[in-house]
Amino acid sequence: MNVRLYLLQRATAAIMAPLVLAHLVLIYYATSRGLSAADILGRTRGSLVWGAFYALFVLCAAVHGAIGVRAVVGEWTPLRGRALDVAMWAVGLLLAVLGLRAVAAVVL
Amino acid sequence: MADTIEVSLWRGRGDGRYQTFTVPRRESQTVLDVVTWVQRNADPTLAYRFACRVGMCGSCAMTVNGRPRWTCRTHVARVVEDGRLRIGPLANLPVIKDLACDMTAFFEKWQAARGVFAPSATRAEPMARISPASPERRAADAAIECINCAVCYAACDSVRWNEAYLGPAALNRAWTLVNDVRDAANRERLAAVAGDGGCHACHTHQSCRELCPAALNPTASIAALKRRTVRAYIWGEL
User: Whose CB has fewer CB within 10 Å in chain B, the N or C terminal residue?
Assistant: First the structure.
């Protein structure tokens, strides 16, 4: 962990705080209204706003999670230096790809 | 009060073992008294460190029943469990012999954190006038009484898990110098504590604050370093 990674992790956390709250409110809203999958997709398909909201969420989560996992792996395994950075990028890219695929699935 | 206590002392180096002695129990006995009794009456080959024996030098720091403490300032009555004591060298440092550990890495990290004053003036210039009430001086004074006993270093989980981590004492010292307005090396110092193994590796477990025998708060110093380095990074000073 260094100042650059620390700042990125804190900044993505700050961005995600309101996004998580909005996400929770959305889930509550959708379930309490008894919205079906078709109902939800009807609202998200073709929506730039939903696409942007969740794409931002996914990218922040990918960065935040990758840095956090790097710290844990660095403390609990013998991985160091370059190997650690490779592991971090691998986790980040995996989360980003999986997340953006999910966003694409509901927006496109 | 029972007549004796069973004391297990670490013997050997990293691959040693605990050896148990039966030691007479006395009123107001400290753990250092116990270790000294063993060395003088039971086994003169026992290696351990002490100096002032009055709680101001930090030399007698050892692990007592799992926690790092100054043994001269630890009453047996406070720590004895079921008539037993377990005493070992400080954790997170290589063992030289028995209860004495190798402090080299601890001091090297102090240097690596730039915990050294860099003068900005010479003896030819007038003395700097520093108000003890200024915010910087108050911040420095709150952390400056560290005598580098390594109790915090031995207590720290992050030190245990991350061999590159500079540790609470080195970072605490760096913070006191960051607040010394006479110092000329602040740019290098902030860079030294902002890299891998720097202040950002701290997870705020606060074992250092909890166990510091001088009642210092390295966690607070490290938190302040985190804020200062982030600010410097954003402003392009790092």
Answer: N
